[in-house]
């Protein structure tokens, strides 16, 4: 844990806000100092953070593509530009210029300047930006700077698996026995359903643990497995898709070298679980999907999954969960058909059964009450889930009934591009994105594609107006739980516009927007474990809990922290972050679950966007489009 500031902050002659010589910078995981008070005014910056959290020159700590945009942000209240230098690993100045004042940034409560050094294109490692004698963290310039992250963000899912022992030879330091494999009350092989009068148990083993607990939730698993399968589809249809980098053997998982791309093998582990959550034929509510399976009360931290002694409970079916199953099963029928025809057919049958069941029971809403032992995931508007499911069923089958439903849905022409972006409870965008990109014969497909570009334009405008280059800037100046996933999901929309149009402004927007996640933020922090110099490594988890038990590992390389959250719902955040300006509302503490949890639906867009950037090579001219893949499972 880093110490609090021990010397006063100095204002240099250039106007750069810097820590005085000999002082120790305050970090987000510092001990709570005097002056952090619950009475702090809303939007204020706690005293411990007013000098920043490290070098005042904030960069993407991983790096930049040679021909792509290269931007940085520096805290400065100077009224005019101040000099900057780009220095290579040997300390030689290779580029220089003046910063551009951007004024007061509401999200950080700081006056900031921007630096654009895009003109410098020479690959190398160990570069630093220097302003007023203060240097940034080192970073690289190269076409391969995202190649590792695209793999590690996906490798995260293997160690999240339920119902299988994690092989330490595949993930050194992360091996553990299988969790929840018994048919007893603490396992997932015969879990009784509760609160809806059912008289059966279900084998719901497998799948991914949702986050830092042992719950498994269909609506969160749905968007997560969708994004993995969507990343795979993009690799086959997008002009810059890199299918070879997602091939068999890429992820070092037990299924590697079985003739199926590893990303699909990993997605299948979750999809098999979602199929098991469907109410069996012959039972009341047949075809519906149970909302979640979780412990009946919270386990303590730390608790490895195989050491969980809590009773497992299966929650009632919900319309939202059922439509998530319909959507992902229809998508799985499409993507798995070339590799496992029987599995594809099984998914298509499940998707159609779920669709029929949801239409028969359109308002079975899950309660937002989490109960003790898991998240709630309540949702009382399922029009977006109906739209997404209809889109996936249409794309896979081509049947007119689904096209008719799409055209009758208000979601088809609604402005769905909210400033906060899409997520597990706002999924209309998933249908819109797939209708725009997956080959199909929808009569108004051109209008759908135009709407995606319009959404991208909105997020791109937000990014350009933001001095930290992020496409996420809520009008109420409050960052949400999981704000990093919202940044990334908005980048998915911008990236899709690039795939549709080839306009470089969208590609460049994605490259710049990723900077925020990897260090170009007020905390000078990369939110991805193992990437950058100052990165998150104490994410909230019951088994990646090294800070609580030295025998346990820290989160694996490539794990994304949720990010700044103005709500400060956990006790650590309440104590340390009272009155925080939005970007400051984060602490790297294993108990700070409101801002520092890791989840499957946050790593999914990280993997998607990292793959997109890796596919851009030098960040310059795009390659010719490959032939589009035809749909192999239409009936």
Describe the fold and architecture.
With 635 residues, this protein is an alpha+beta fold. The protein has a domain at 147-366: Alpha/alpha barrel (Glycosyltransferase), CATH 1.50.10.10. Helices cover 31% and strands 11% of the residues. The chain contains 14 helices and 19 strands. It has helices at 147-159, 218-237, 262-276, 319-336, 341-360, 383-397, 400-408, 428-437, 445-465, 483-501, 504-517, 571-576, 593-596, 600-614, and strands at residues 9-11, 17-19, 57-58, 63-64, 71-75, 83-87, 93-98, 100-105, 110-116, 124-131, 134-135, 139-141, 191-192, 201-202, 216-217, 289-290, 292-295, 312-314, 317-318. The strands form six sheets. Strands 4, 6, 7, 10, 11 and 12 form a six-stranded mixed beta sheet that branches. A hairpin with a 5-residue loop joins strand 1 and strand 2. Helix 6 packs parallel to helix 8. The relative contact order is 0.14. Keywords: Carbohydrate metabolism, Cellulose degradation, Glycosidase, Hydrolase, Polysaccharide degradation, Signal. Its EC number is 3.2.1.4.
CATH architecture tag of the domain at 147-366: Alpha/alpha barrel
Largest sheet descriptor: 6 strands, mixed
As for the CATH topology of the domain at 147-366, it is Glycosyltransferase
- Helices, by number, come to 14
**Cα-to-Cα separation, first versus last residue:** 59 Å
Query: What is the general shape?
Result: globular
Q: Assign the structural class, choosing from mainly alpha, mainly beta, alpha/beta, alpha+beta, or little secondary structure.
A: alpha+beta
> Mean pLDDT across all residues, rounded?
90
Calculate Rg over CA atoms: 24 Å
| Beta-strand content bin | 5-15%
Number of strands: 19
| Helix percent band | 25-40%
Q: In CATH, what is the class of the domain at 147-366?
A: Mainly Alpha
Low-confidence stretches: 1-52, 623-635
EC number: 3.2.1.4
Enzyme class: hydrolase
Domain Cellulase Ig-like: 53-135
Domain Glycoside hydrolase family: 146-609
